[in-house]
Amino acid sequence: MFPNLFAAAPIVRSARRPVRLWAVVLALCAGTLGLSAHAQQTLSLDAALRFAEERSRQLVAQDAAAGAARAMAVAAGQLPDPVLKAGISNLPVNGSDRFSLTRDFMTMRSIGVMQEFTRSDKRQARAARFDREAEVAEAGRTVALANLRRDTAIAWLDRYYQGQMRDLLQTQRAELTLQIEGADAAYRGGRGTQADVFTARSALAQLDDRILAQERQIATAQTRLARWVGPGTPPPSMALPELGSVRLDARNLEAQIGEHPQIALMARQEAVARAEADVAQSNKRSDWSVELMYSQRGPAYSNMVSLNLSIPLQLDQKNRQDRELAAKLATVEQLQAQREEATRESAAEALSWLQQWQSNRKRLALYDSSLIPLAAERTQAVLAAYRGGAGTLSAALETRRMEVDTRLERLRLEMETAALWAQLEFLIPANHSVLDTGPSAAAGETKESQK
Question: What is residue 91's DSSP assignment?
């Protein structure tokens, strides 16, 4: 951890020191018990993903849409309902037989039934169209689930790293408090200056402001996480997922990106357009309707039966049915072109994320191997000069601040890298091929960030 600046200045011991020491010990014990109880109420990433999926209403909506389309597919495959017809024909309206149902031989009371016989290939095409609609809804559910898991993971990781930054600042504050006590004791003993006391107190005030700002960041991150997993969300657990590998391979990215939920959704929408084109193709052949009618006349006359056949005449297929089919085929071509363009765009975007993720991991390795050790060594050197009387307290505090800033910058970079990992990890559904990629550098980034 950080070197102790408290040893940089002489301390005047007093009789109250043992009491203060016991108070510190008791406070540490109470804090340890509090941390133990708190650790039992943390939230792992897997649990957060599970809770988010359980409480999502978007997934329920997509399931309902798929069920509705499946039900419509069954209905579309059936024959139309028969039509019951009843009426009176040739009813006299004047003369001696007016409004009589039985006197005139032409008056008939009729009842019949009409049935439209839709061709089986047309019914199958209509049913297939709704089946494709159900597949669109299922693909939409996959898109919603992928977005939900990605956003939940990003919110969880954001809350985790915001807490790590606050812990780092609070660690610095505890050490700076000791430094203030040392500066006060040195000043009272005549071995320090009042300027050193004011410098240390000013540094503490600035640090408190940074801690307050960080608490606001934590509250915001907690609100984002609660959006997905619900109110009353406990803080994230200290166990991070494996952030050193992703399931995308830059060498086979275009093939993998075809399984991207959004691309798969566009493919299903294209299938719906093809099904609609099939329906338009089947509409070029007319359906027949058959009507059977039984007509009753007066008792002195014979009853009659009528049988009618109706066939629509498609006299202008060139400008009606053919135009409709051409429009549907053009829609298919449009959706296909849009899907191919979106595939290229998604592949380029995923490759950009993958390259940035790999670059960030190399930068994290540089922080661990050079930047942080050098900042710590510089702090040690300035402290040694301060203890030897060759340096000032202001320089020591500034060096400490720079080291903390370096560690905070590393945490921010690690948080950005973790967000990229979430983007890549949840880009493709987990049931597809799992591939490991990326350098093995920065394997100890999690441990270092917790120091």
Answer: -
Is 222 strand, coil or helix?
helix
Tell me the domain boundaries of the chain.
5-35+44-78+120-284+317-449
Contact criterion met (CB below 8 Å) for 184 and 211:
no
Q: Which residue has the tokens 């120091």?
A: 451
Measured CA to CA, the distance from residue 451 to residue 248 in angstroms comes to 31
Note the pLDDT of residue 192: 67
User: Rounded distance, CA 199 to CA 270, Å?
Assistant: 69
The pLDDT of residue 34 is 41
Residue with structure tokens 């600035």? 206
For residues 318 and 221, what is the distance between their CA atoms, to the nearest angstrom? 61
The pTM of this model reads 0.77
- What is the per-residue pLDDT across 333-360, written as a single tens digit (0 to 9) for each? 999 999 999 999 999 999 999 999 999 9
Say yes or no: domain 5-35+44-78+120-284+317-449 is CATH 1.20.1600.10.
yes
Q: Which residues contact 211 (CB under 8 A, 6 or more apart)?
A: 166, 169, 170, 173
**Nearest by Cα to 200 from 436, 5, 426:** 5
CB-based contacts of 6, cutoff 8 Å, min separation 6: 175, 178, 179, 181, 182
- φ/ψ of 152, rounded to 5, equals -65, -45
Rounded Cα distance between 279 and 416, Å, is 50
For residue 221, count CB atoms less than 10 angstroms from its CB and return exposed for 0-12, middle for 13-18, buried for 19 or more: buried
Q: How many CA atoms lie within 13 A of 98 on its CB side?
A: 4
As a whole number of angstroms, the distance between CA 126 and CA 76 comes to 6
